[in-house]
Write a structure and sequence with these properties.
Elements lengths: L1 H25 L2 E5 L2 H15 L3 H12 L3 H5 L6 E5 L1 H14 L14 H20 L1 H30 L5 H30 L5 E4 L1 H27 L1
Antiparallel strand pairs: 1-2, 1-3
Helix pairs in contact: 1-7, 1-8, 1-9, 2-6, 5-7, 7-8, 8-9
Length: about 240
Amino acid sequence: MRRFASIILRLVFIVFIGAAGFLLFESPATINVQNVPKVARSVIKKNVDKSGDTNLKGTLKLVKDFGVENKVLEQLPSKYQRDLSYVDLYNLSVSYQENGELTAKNLKLPEKNEVQKAVNYLILQRVNKGLSDNSKQVNNSINIFHYFLFGAILILALAALLVLFGQSWASIALLIAAVGSFGALQYYLNQLVQYLQSELDPGISLITSSMLWLGLAISVVVAIIWPLGLKLTKKKD
């Protein structure tokens, strides 16, 4: 009976590790833009200032002179949010490496009217130009991210396997996988946000979801409790 209780306890801890892993790899952090028209205005200005096209500059001047700039920008959504979990970021990075650029579909940019399509074009042109100019560094970062992601999954699987076989140092593997994956996601997304801030607008921010924090919390609690539970069951055995 005690042996059966020990096995049940291990299975319960494995379930918690699986739940924590699911939350850590599937829960998103959100790239948040509170004022899309402001970002669009900034991007348009930067593109026009760098452009040698006098017709483009003249058209923008006419739009401002006639006071219809705000009317045009009102056709854009007021806010933009893009959720990015580990899985989303992995798919985004793979798509970028395959195609050499980001698309409106990748970033889930709305394209409901011609104004949105035109602004998306300018945004993507600017973002992709910056990525292209730093392609070697970008690809190196993506490759490191991929290695780290697969490594974190393997370490998490190792933690579950160690729990199954009643090894106390499963807690160490779990903490490495959980804290490492949480920190790495924050690091890579912050790098992405900083890049977007420099290229588009400083008002772009990052919001970490409560479910991601929950995944980290479950991992830490399980890592602390597991050796105690193991010790108690061994005493009973």
